[in-house]
Automatic annotation (TrEMBL):
Gene Ontology MF term list: threonine deaminase activity
Topology of this chain in the membrane: Multi-pass membrane protein
Record protein name field: Threonine dehydratase protein
Transmembrane regions: 7-25, 31-52, 64-85, 100-123
PANTHER family, sorted: COLICIN V PRODUCTION PROTEIN
Keywords: Lyase, Membrane, Transmembrane, Transmembrane helix
Length: 176
């Protein structure tokens, strides 16, 4: 096990600990809020930019401000909803179960984050480095990245490559 494997374990462990302490419902609502915030900001930034024409003359700045405002407003509403639901869960007595499932959710989130990082590394020369090839866990994460790559547009997916794993040389000595 080399340094990158220890870092991988640390990311998964840290994510699991955060998931445990926050609980599944808070983690799930938080994730859903971020996804919804990106979706709504992306979908309605053009419309929001129209309302800012009077104050911001540069089109790209209007779009960026509209995106940011929509994104932050959705995150704030999500945080309020998350807080209220977390208080209700703590009062119902399901806090222990919620935390245990939150820890499992954290493990999955950590693995998903690592797969995303490996996917991004696939467009760089990093996967050809010796430490990458020597890692115990990166090969498994590459499998996940290759699976995720199939969902990307073909132009982007074609840029993500990994070297073939080295295979040990066949033993040419005669067997008995």
């Amino acid at each position: 096990m080399i340094w990158v494997d220890i870092a991988i374990l640390a990311v998964v462990a840290l994510s699991a600990i955060i998931g445990f302490f926050r609980g599944f419902l808070r983690e799930a609502i938080g994730l859903a809020t971020w996804i919804l915030a990106f979706y709504l900001a992306f979908s309605f930034a053009d419309t929001g930019a129209l309302f800012l024409e009077r104050w911001i003359s540069v089109g790209s700045a209007r779009l960026a401000v509209a995106f940011g405002v929509i994104f932050i407003v959705v995150l704030l509403f999500g945080a309020i909803i998350n807080y209220v639901i977390a208080r209700l869960v703590n009062q119902t007595g399901f806090a222990g179960t919620d935390r245990a499932i939150g820890g499992l959710f954290g493990v999955l989130r950590g693995i998903a984050l690592l797969i995303l990082l490996v996917l991004l590394a696939g467009v760089t020369p990093v996967p050809r480095d010796a430490w990458w090839q020597q890692s115990i866990f990166i090969g498994h994460l590459e499998d996940g990245a290759l699976w995720a790559r199939d969902f990307l547009p073909p132009d982007l997916a074609g840029a993500i490559t990994y070297p073939e794993p080295a295979t040990p040389a066949e033993d040419s000595s005669p067997s008995i």
